[in-house]
Amino acid sequence: MLGWLLFGRGHRHVTAEMLYDEACEARISVSLATVYNTLHQFREASLLRQLAVDGTKSYFDTNVAEHHHFFLEDEQMLVDVPDGLITIGEVPEAPEGSEVVCVEVIVRLRRKNTRAKSSQQASQQLTEA
Ligand SMILES: [Zn+2]
After folding, report:
1. How far is CA 57 from the centre of its chain?
2. Is 67 annotated as a binding residue?
3. Nearest alpha-carbon partner for 47 in 110, 86, 84, 3
4. Which of 3, 58, 61, 78 sits CB 3.0–4.6 Å from 49 for a disulfide?
5. Three-state DSSP class for residue 74
6. How many angstroms does the Cα of residue 115 sit away from the middle of ligand 1?
7. What is the pTM (predicted TM-score) of this model?
8. How far is the CA of 90 from the centre of ligand 1 (A)?
């Protein structure tokens, strides 16, 4: 049931809490703990990837291919960066006994302060006049 909720809508990024809310809305009776366990089982089976954006929340991505993300701080939302927009420079060699699994970039975005922007425009107009 949870799998259907998770994978039935194309690629997406969810937290356990988001999926739990969706399950409640769909009248699927599960506990938040079950949702956590299910997500981690899917992750162990490589059907999901876990992304830690900050210390408090884990996002699970149904797209398991290597790709980069925008994180919209105002919405607390992850969005895939279209392919080819980010070029990775040199990656350091892995320390002995380990290997690089993948390199992923999270570009954090927040809305521009529109007030600061309009005062900037105003002062620009002043100088132009
Ligand atoms: Zn993604």
Report:
1. 10
2. yes
3. 3
4. 61
5. coil
6. 32
7. 0.76
8. 23
Domain boundaries, the chain: 1-65, 66-129
* 33-74 pLDDT tens trace: 999 999 999 999 999 999 988 777 899 999 999 899 999 999
- Residues forming beta bridges with residue 60, ordered by sequence position: 14, 50
Cα 34 to middle of ligand 1, angstroms? 23
- Compute the Cα dihedral for 81, 82, 88, 94 and give only its sign: positive
As its CATH architecture, domain 1-65 has: Orthogonal Bundle (1.10)
Cα–Cα distance measured from residue 126 to residue 114, given in angstroms and rounded to the nearest whole number: 18
d(CA 82, ligand 1 centre) in Å: 10
- d(CA 67, ligand 1 centre) in Å: 6
Which structure tokens are listed for 31?
Answer: 């506990």
Report CA(57)–ligand 1 centroid distance (Å).
Answer: 15
For residue 50, report the distance from its CA to the centre of ligand 1, in Å: 10
- For 9-20, what is each residue's pLDDT tens digit? 788 999 999 999
Q: Rounded to whole angstroms, what are the CA distances from 6 to 25, 30, 35, 63, 108?
A: 14, 14, 11, 11, 25
